[in-house]
Amino acid sequence: KHIVLFASGSGSNAEKIAEYFTDVPNAEISLIVSNNPKAGVIERARKLHIPVLLFDRTTFYDTDRITQLLLNQDIDLIVLAGFMWLMPTDLVRAFPNKIVNIHPALLPKFGGKGMYGHFVHEAVAAAGETESGITIHYVNERYDEGQIIFQATCAVSHTDTPDDIARKVQALEHAHYPRVVADILASITK
Ligand code: GRF
After folding, report:
1. pTM for this entry
2. Contacts of residue 43, Cβ cutoff 8 Å, sequence gap at least 6
3. pLDDT tens-digit series, residues 30-40
């Protein structure tokens, strides 16, 4: 089975998933797609010997180019790990329930366009939440609205800064995303 990872940032989740899959039989990370030539994920991919495909916005949304590419690569599962663009509609339609994303908060709260990265943790701290966490969900055509697959929570105290919350949430991401991705992949029959 073949997985493609989409990442725009440092790629710590992509790296954890790739490392996890070195021990999973009959499954591999075939490709990493990014939209940021300066993304840390590119260096991590190089060390992991995973090819990287860089897209600019025009190419990424150019008709069904990315969809055809991934269909030709016989991809079974698309995993978003900090990818900041919306999936093209034809890609979502070509891969029904085969695109997953991780959001660094407990959807449906603190989700939607613009609610990513540090902004989420600032909003959680500002709202005085007593917990935060991660949401792994299927991807559809609207940000953060697909069916929820898995959530894990962490406690938030009123003295926690957004950085404190980010650290706790990232620990949950690294602890759970690789295994949840492996479970989803195992549940996909060709
Ligand atoms: C994580 O916070 C993830 O929840 C969000 O984007 C960030 C990716 O971080 N989707 P990294 O690039 O995997 O370190």
Report:
1. 0.96
2. none
3. 999 999 999 99
Per-residue burial over 30-63, b if 16 or more Cβ lie within 10 Å, else e, is bbbbbbbeebbbbebbeebebebbebeeeebbee
Instruction: Report ipTM for this prediction.
Output: 0.96
Span from the CA of 74 to the centroid of ligand 1 (angstroms): 26
DSSP 105: S
Check pocket membership of 45 for ligand 1, CB cut-off 6 A. no
Per the annotation, the verdict on 176 as an active-site residue is: no
Bridge partners, 2 (sequence order): 28
Report which protein residue has its CA nearest ligand 1's atom 1: 82
CA distance 157 to 54: 40
Q: How many residues does the chain have?
A: 190
Q: Note whether 51 and 32 are within 8 A (CB).
A: yes
Least Cα distance to 104 among 25, 12, 3, 29 occurs for 12
Whether the bond into 108 is cis, omega within 30 of 0: yes
The C-alpha atoms of residue 173 and residue 190 are separated, in whole angstroms, by 27
Q: Closest by alpha carbon to 180, among 28, 19, 20, 2?
A: 20
- The yes-or-no verdict on residue 162 having pLDDT over 80 is yes
